[in-house]
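Predict the 3D structure for this chain.
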Amino acid sequence: MLTVALGGLVPSSGVILWSFLAPLGAAVFDRPRQAWKWFGAFGALLVVTIPLSELVRPDGAELPTGAVLAFAALNIGAVCLVTFAVVVAFARQRELARHRVESLLLDILPEEIAQRLQIEPQTIADHFDEASVLFADVVDFTPLSSRLHAKEVVELLDRLFGSFDELADRYGVEKIKTIGDCYMVAAGVPRPRPDHALALVRMALEMHDCAAECLTGDGGRNLQLRIGISSGPLVAGVIGRKRFLYDLWGDTVNMASRMESHGIPGAIQITRPTWELVRDDFVTEPQGLVEVKGKGEVETWRLVGPRL
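Done. Predicted structure below.
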């Protein structure tokens, strides 16, 4: 209206530029599709206003040149300032969104894998010659969960696995996943380390302590764990396109799982490769041969504790 009343863009000092903030604001704070409608309205406003101002006031308003220049500088500068502020707000929103995505990736993937996943669109798969894998599950969890309320079951596992997560961070090992009441953790992936077996054995001993302190609320009975550990080569990679997972495969993983499932309640059972790596630092007891599906009879040891 001011542009029409003063007779055009020049006499009005380009005041119509303020209307550009509508599509700009819509692009940042509304849906992008809506922003195009606002930009179309801005274009239509220009098409209508400029010819209309020539009809309403063909000679233009006779304003002092200094006033016209001053208002032009004010309009252009103020519009640019607001535009810049809106773009900065958009950039901050994008940065916060990127941080949320990165934080989410780090919650479900190792840091190195999360970085590679953002850079490399291809499949991520690595082979490790030396690593250790630990499986732990709660003894008699199924009958225990049947006696508890659903909320108590979830709170129990959350408290227990939360303490395991703290141990994993402390020992610098990698939590892989949880399956029901089973907790899987590995050392030596995705960062190779020479003390992978020692790290998991130390963590396993503390996991028993955490379970003993994590009361079920059912008569104050302590939880017991079965823990199995095996060491050797394995393959690690990211699978899936939705809810993707960093997972491990190979005989080492299968043997660790068998050590847990064939283990003794309250004990840590290890295979020969793990025993050879920790026998100088920890006291162990031979358990004899254990029949493992697909492997036959396998030598196993029970971990007692650190050597004094």
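The first strand starts at residue 125 and ends at 138.
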